[in-house]
């Protein structure tokens, strides 16, 4: 089915502006008021399936790249471009694993905890969902060159998609603040990599100006088309739960693109009558980068029907600047203190009756070791979900027999240094360091024997 794009448009999220734009425009922020844009749909112009389970028929047609894609097989739900522009490199072949051992660690009953492994995407993180959509939009508007700022996963994914569809690509990263696996990918996939003396927030400011000046296509999560692709993570969780919705979704909070996209996904599914109730959402900050936690829980910032109290945000950021504050956490993917999707995330929190928690690095690396030991492993930011879930269980916010899906955003090899140091240097209670042995058969046998009787 070849869909046309006249059923979709962009709309400013500021209710006092509400300006609308065609999807053929690459603007990324409202040119009238500077606020974030949504991609919206005129649903009665789109043939959306009557039931979510109707999407299952696409599995029978997996030799078609769009039906194989874990994003585009749900294409009626992000119907902003014609099929001829759609980009896919096989993203979204992910696993939702029910994991009772990790459930025990967070004090949940067997059968209740699910781990969504987004690290199984081609570039090793959830970003590929968004890039499939953003690069389709890039081809639709006819750009030749793109850029992004990145804590790492974005640069890897952008570099991979850019060369896959013939675009030039420049990535901006902060100096010394990027995990090695991610940096290696950006270089290996052929991106021009510019390391700025500063942190992610500095990179984000620079890349927006560079894109505006040079007419480059911006692929950060400010780009609303990226968030359209990231909605598919929720569709796949529902799919793998037999087309049922969990009680809770738990997601790490960095630039807040995922939480914003997930909120939008559930809002639309409810509008379409495809689900009855949205799950609640829990967003987990690292303690060293806790802007969302501070603003929501301490400063009581809310969506307020789109009229977000700007002064609270401005004062908070002015205080960060005055203190010369730079965020710091081992979970580099969420080491962000000025999240660009903050307001959209506030909307998602309101609509999903969501909560925000923060967790210290020690709890993140311990949780990461547990996911490694009993599951398929993940990068540090992903494990913040497990650490956060422990808190929410201890507080009684989440019940032991509720169905919870944690979004594990990136592959364990994204950040090998953190893993090696945790185990080798015995940094946590689950450290599993290598045992040193002399080059001698008897001694080695003796060692293995003692390990086995441990
Ligand atoms: Zn506007």
Order of helices and strands: EEEHEHEHEHEHEHEHHEHEHHHEHHEHH
Q: What are the segments in which pLDDT stays under 50 over at least 5 consecutive residues?
A: none
Q: Assess the beta-strand content as a share of residues.
A: 5-15%
Derived from helix and strand composition plus strand pairing, the structural class reads: alpha/beta
Instruction: Describe the oligomeric state of these chains in a short phrase.
Output: single chain
The end-to-end span amounts to 61 Å
Number of strands: 13
Largest β-sheet summary: 6 strands, mixed
Which percent range fits the helix content? 25-40%
**Ligand roster:** zinc ion
Shape: globular
Strand order of the largest sheet: 4-5-13-10-11-12
How many helices?
16
């Amino acid at each position: 089915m070849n869909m046309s794009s006249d059923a979709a448009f962009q709309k400013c999220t500021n209710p006092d502006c509400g300006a609308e734009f065609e999807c053929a425009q690459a603007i990324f922020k409202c040119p009238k008021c500077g606020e974030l844009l949504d991609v919206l749909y005129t649903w009665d112009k789109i043939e959306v399936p009557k039931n979510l389970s109707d999407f299952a028929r696409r599995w029978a047609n997996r030799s078609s790249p769009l039906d194989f894609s874990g994003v585009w097989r749900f294409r009626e739900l992000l119907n902003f471009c014609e099929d001829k522009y759609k980009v896919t490199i096989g993203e979204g072949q992910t696993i939702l694993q029910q994991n009772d051992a990790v459930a025990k660690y967070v004090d949940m009953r067997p059968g209740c905890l699910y781990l969504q492994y987004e690290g199984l995407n081609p570039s090793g993180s959830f970003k590929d969902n968004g890039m499939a959509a953003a690069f389709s939009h890039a081809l639709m508007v006819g750009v030749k060159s793109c850029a992004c700022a990145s804590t790492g996963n974005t640069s890897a994914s952008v570099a991979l998609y850019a060369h896959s569809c013939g675009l030039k690509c420049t990535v901006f990263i902060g100096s010394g603040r990027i995990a090695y696996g991610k940096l290696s990918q950006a270089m290996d996939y052929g991106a021009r990599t510019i390391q700025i003396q500063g942190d992610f927030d500095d990179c984000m400011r620079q890349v927006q100006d560079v894109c505006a000046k040079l007419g480059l296509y911006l692929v950060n999560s400010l780009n609303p088309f990226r968030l359209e692709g990231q909605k598919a993570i929720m569709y796949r969780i529902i799919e793998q739960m037999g087309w049922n919705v969990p009680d809770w979704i738990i997601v790490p909070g960095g630039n807040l693109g995922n939480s914003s996209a997930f909120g939008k996904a559930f809002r639309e599914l409810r509008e379409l009558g495809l689900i009855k109730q949205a799950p609640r959402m829990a967003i987990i900050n690292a303690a060293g980068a806790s802007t969302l936690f501070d603003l929501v829980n301490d400063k009581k910032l809310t969506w307020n029907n789109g009229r977000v109290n700007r002064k609270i945000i401005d004062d908070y950021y002015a205080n960060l600047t005055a203190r010369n504050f730079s965020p710091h956490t081992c979970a580099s993917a969420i080491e962000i203190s000025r999240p660009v999707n903050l307001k959209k995330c506030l909307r998602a929190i309101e609509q999903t009756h969501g909560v925000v928690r923060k967790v210290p690095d020690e709890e993140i690396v311990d949780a990461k070791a547990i996911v490694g030991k009993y599951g398929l492993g993940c990068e540090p930011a992903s494990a913040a979900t497990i650490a956060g879930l422990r808190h929410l269980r201890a507080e009684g916010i989440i019940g032991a027999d509720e169905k919870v899906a944690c979004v594990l955003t990136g592959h364990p090899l994204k950040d090998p240094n953190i893993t090696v140091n945790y185990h080798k240097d015995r940094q946590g209670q689950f450290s599993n360091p290598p045992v040193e042995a002399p080059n001698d058969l008897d001694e080695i046998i003796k060692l293995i024997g003692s390990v086995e009787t441990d």
